[in-house]
Amino acid sequence: MKTVKRVIQIEVETERSVVVACRQSSTGWCGRCNLEIPFLPLAEVVALTRLEESELAQNHDLHLEIQSDGQVLVCLNSINKSLTN
Questions:
Q1: Looking at the domain assignment, is residue 13 inside a domain?
Q2: 59: helix, coil or strand?
Q3: What is the CA radius of gyration of the chain?
Q4: CA-angle at 53, arms to 49 and 54, nearest 5°
Q5: In this structure, is residue 8 part of a structural domain?
Q6: How many CB atoms are closer than 10 A to CB 11?
Q7: Rounded CA gap, 17 and 21, in Å?
Q8: CA 82 to CA 32: how far, in whole Å?
């Protein structure tokens, strides 16, 4: 009697949703998205993504905005796109 080997391939697609509740968010115009969109402080993004601030600052996919007081804000839309890629 012959033994037949069967190979079963299972593909699983996942989608990650992140809910952000931040008191420090502000809405502003993102010139790269051409939308009015919420911005988060860089420190909040660091806590959310668990990446180093320097890694995030060098990520060219993130849309950064520097305020007059020196605070760096990140476009929420670009965070979502960066996390899903």
A1: no
A2: coil
A3: 19
A4: 125
A5: no
A6: 4
A7: 13
A8: 14
